[in-house]
């Protein structure tokens, strides 16, 4: 099992926000624009305030024996 530390989790979240920002720039007329913009506005603060200290992730690498 491989576990992510907080730095890895921060990079993962930041990459999601960058992707959302790029999507907004490329799709200003999309029906989902307002919803994505709202998430991009609220998620970084929510993550820093409520999530960062409590969540993480790990990966199991399984193979037959």
Note the main attributes of this structure.
two-stranded antiparallel sheet; mainly alpha
Overall outline: elongated
Share of helix, binned = 55-70%
How many strands? 2
Radius of gyration from the CA trace? 16 Å
Topology as a string of helices (H) and strands (E): EHHE
Largest sheet: 2 strands, antiparallel
Query: What is the quaternary state of this protein?
Result: single chain
The class by helix and strand makeup works out as mainly alpha
Q: β content, as a range?
A: 5-15%
Topology (elements, then pairings):
Blueprint: E1 2-3, H1 6-26, H2 33-51, E2 58-59
Antiparallel strand pairs: 1-2
Helix pairs in contact: 1-2
Question: What is shown here, in short?
Answer:
62% of the residues lie in helices and 6% in strands. The chain has 65 residues and is mostly helical.
Describe the overall structure.
The protein has 65 residues and is mainly α. The protein has a domain at 9-52. Helices cover 62% and strands 6% of the residues. It is built from two helices and two strands; from the N terminus they run βααβ. It has helices spanning 6-26, 33-51; strands spanning 2-3, 58-59. Strands 1-2 form a two-stranded antiparallel sheet. Helix 1 (6-26) packs antiparallel against helix 2. It is elongated and about 50 Å long. The chain starts with a strand and ends in a 6-residue tail after the last strand.
């Amino acid at each position: 099992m491989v576990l992510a530390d907080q730095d890895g989790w921060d990079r993962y979240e930041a990459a999601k926000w960058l992707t959302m920002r790029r999507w907004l720039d490329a799709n200003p007329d999309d029906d989902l624009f307002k919803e994505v913009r709202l998430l991009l506005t609220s998620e970084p603060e929510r993550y820093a305030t409520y999530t960062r200290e409590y969540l993480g992730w790990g990966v199991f690498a399984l193979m037959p024996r």
